[in-house]
Amino acid sequence: MSSISELRRLRGSQRDTRQQNKAALFFLLPWFVGLFGITLGPMLASLYLSFTKYNLLQPPQFSGLDNWTRMLHDDRLHKSLEVTFTYVLVSVPLQLALALGLALLLDKGVRGLAFYRSVFYLPSLIGGSVAIAVLWRTVFGTDGLVNKALALVGIHGQGWVSEPGTALSTLIVLNVWTFGSPMVIFLAGLRQIPASLYEAASVDGAGRWRQFRNITLPLLTPIIFFNLVLQIIHAFQTFTQAFVVSGGTGGPADSTLFYSLYLYQRGFGQFDMGYASALAWLLLLIVGVFTAVNFWASKYWVFYDD
Amino acid sequence: MTDRAIAVPTRSQPVARAHAARHGRRRVRALLKHVLLVACVLVMLYPVLWMVVSSLRPNSEIFRDAGLALTHPRLENYSNGWTAFAQPFSHYLVNSLLVVIGAILGNLLACSMAAYAFARLEFKAKRLWFGIMLVTIMLPIHVIIVPQYALFSQLGWVNTFLPLIVPKFLATDAFFIFLMVQFIRGIPREIDEAARIDGAGHARIFFNIIVPLMVPALATTAIFTFIWTWNDFYTQLIYLTDPSMYTTPLALRAFVDQQSATDWGSVFAMSVVSLVPVFLVFLFGQRFLLRGIATTGGK
User: Fold this and answer.
1) Which of A27, A143, A284 minimises the CB distance to B63?
2) Distance CA B229, CA B93 (A)
3) Which tens digit of pLDDT belongs to each residue from A5-48?
4) End residue of a domain, out of B18, B46, B78
5) Is the domain of B126 the same as that of B60?
6) Adjacent-strand bridge partners of A62
7) How confident is the model at residue B26 (pLDDT cuts 50, 70, 90)?
8) Beta carbons of B123 and B205 less than 8 angstroms apart
9) Residue of A91, A271, B31, B263 with fewest CB within 10 Å of its CB?
């Protein structure tokens, strides 16, 4: 009796498993097609193409490690790596520091919080648009707002966008300007820190700085880590701003030749698709290594209380 | 806590004075905070406000005047900019809108289906697939763009909107799958268990129960998709080369390269026009945007 009902239940659960597998296939079908057809498939294809000469018109010709050895002697590639690394390593920490600073300012019940939050968040929605890149080009131009402001304090500014020495820094400022989205994530994280911890600390006589140092900062490290990983990956792929500000050239003197911009020029300007594929895979490796190092290093500074 | 409660009555006078001092200090601090915040707001928004004001000024004044005062607002730049292209600017706005609508529909349908499977169904190698899905969120588009371009050009899709829309119907924006999985996990399982007992299949549970309950997550997805697709430049630049297929950002870029030295007024005017939809969506949808960021970012 009991064994029969058990058997029935077993068969029922087997049927259930089969049914769930079938349902899952149905619900995931679009995703599977996308994953294999236009994500993983092309990814592997581009790995293969990186070992070929390919101009899109003729079929790819196998060329061994040619593309990869060419990279060693490609001065423009080296320049674009330098530009991109500078951009990532300078703009991301600045952006996150500003995001954290303003989140802390806004956290402790400021009147008009919703207003400030919206205003600070807005630039991160429009910062990647062509319109803002166009604006940037004029704001940092010879007659632009920045020089008008500098003239007020008696400094005669230059054309920031047209000087190789300063063009990149205008784009760094643009990225820092979009600190709103990490700031909102910081705010959400700050809200999850239990108020009782601060109460206990202030009873024990801990001042503001010590509370920040010993409560806020450690409990916020997972969020800092999350933002860091995300913004680094994001910054490595910056394209639109550099493209519009430099008119598609990466100039002046290749000073804004971002990696993705160089890849675009090679692939879709000169139709050197084999080399562009190799560049794409190098980018994937770089981003992957950065992310892996980030995760490895997180063991030493990110605090998980569970 | 109890220590303090006992201590207050016995030392009431000095405590009250300390209280008042602390109160005063707090007000000064709050004031300083607001000064700092308002200064940040001004520095951040000034360039954008200046662009809006400049779009209403004659060209000769734009670079002479760094202020925001507007004595004689004129719409000339808008009418000039609107008709400066091969087609009226509305043509490019409509193109962008078509791409955006397609992308939104695709993301809503495909991502919510995938999210239901990950959040509610047990299937083979689920953890592995979920891991792959998370990794694809971080995958740079550059790694797939070359073969994808080759594929879509073989299909004859270059200079159509299909390369911009079809991938959305195949749930390639995995970020939204993740967002919706997080949301569905918050819906009590008892609700769909009850429907199961009543004999409802997974399709019915999904469409009749889960979808209506996940409207906030769908709204977040729609709004983010709108803004990201509207601003997207890279893929549109690659797939749309015929000027009559240009979307708003492409038209704007082409305009800037033609006109830059001469007609900044019109450039600014059309830039403002291109930002207005994003601004409106942000204004009416920011509740969903902020919540969406908080659920995915802040765990």
Assistant:
1) A143
2) 12
3) 565 555 567 777 888 889 999 999 999 999 999 999 999 999 99
4) B78
5) no
6) A52
7) confident
8) no
9) B31
Size of interface A-B (CB pairs under 8 A): 251
State how far residue A300 is from chain B, nearest Cα, in angstroms.
21
Please name the fold of domain A66-301: MetI-like fold (1.10.3720)
Asked whether the predicted pLDDT for residue A287 surpasses 90, the reply is yes
> ω into residue B47 within 30 of 0, thus cis?
no
State whether B288 and B187 are in the same domain.
yes
Instruction: Please state, as a whole number, how many other Cβ atoms lie within 10 Å of the Cβ of residue A55.
Output: 13
Q: What are the phi and psi torsion angles at A64 (to 5°)? A: 60, -135
Q: Are residues B73 and B170 in the same domain?
A: no
Pair B175, B35 in one domain? no
Nearest to B121 among A23, A34, A223 (CB): A23
State the CB neighbour count (10 A cutoff) for residue B262: 10
Burial of A24 (0-12, 13-18, 19+ CB in 10 A): buried
Q: Which residue of B has its CA nearest to A141?
A: B63
Q: How many residues does chain A have?
A: 306
Domain co-membership, B282 together with B159: yes
Q: For A92-121, how does the pLDDT look when each residue is reduced to its tens digit (9 = 90+)?
A: 999 999 999 999 999 877 888 888 999 999
- Classified as helix, coil or strand, A270 is coil
**ipTM value of the model?**
0.88
What mean pLDDT value characterizes chain A?
Answer: 90
Q: Which residue of A has its CA nearest to B177?
A: A31
Q: Which of B137, B138, B118, B139 is nearest to B127 (CA)?
A: B118
Record: contact A287-B274, CB cut-off 8 A? no
Q: Is the pLDDT of residue A271 over 50?
A: yes
Nearest to B146 among A38, A243, A280 (CB): A280
Long-range contacts of A195-202 (CB under 8 A, 24+ apart): A199/B1
Selected residue with higher pLDDT from B297 and A253: A253
Q: Is the whole-model pTM more than 0.80?
A: yes
Question: For residue A27, which residues of chain B lie inside 8 Å, CB to CB?
Answer: 113-114, 116-117, 121, 202, 206
Examine the domain organization and report whether B156 and B248 are in the same domain: yes
Which residues share a beta bridge with B265?
none
Which residues of B fall within a CB distance of 8 Å from A149? 66
Question: Tokens 């006078």 — which residue?
Answer: B13
Which residue in chain B is spatially nearest to A18 when comparing CA positions?
A: B123
Residue B294 has what pLDDT?
Answer: 66
What are the boundaries of each domain within chain A? 2-49, 66-301
Residues of B with Cβ-Cβ distance to A157 under 8 angstroms: none
**DSSP-derived 3-state class of residue A61:** strand
* Residue A150 backbone class (left: φ over 0; alpha: ψ -120 to 50; beta: rest): alpha
Structurally, how many domains does chain B consist of?
Answer: 2
What domain range is B24 assigned to? 2-78
Residues in chain B: 299
Instruction: Kindly determine whether residue B139 and residue A30, on different chains, have CB atoms separated by under 8 Å.
Output: no
Which two tokens mark B67? 């202020």
Suggest the residue from B122, B142, B236 to mutate for an interface test with chain A (most A CBs closer than 10 A).
Answer: B142
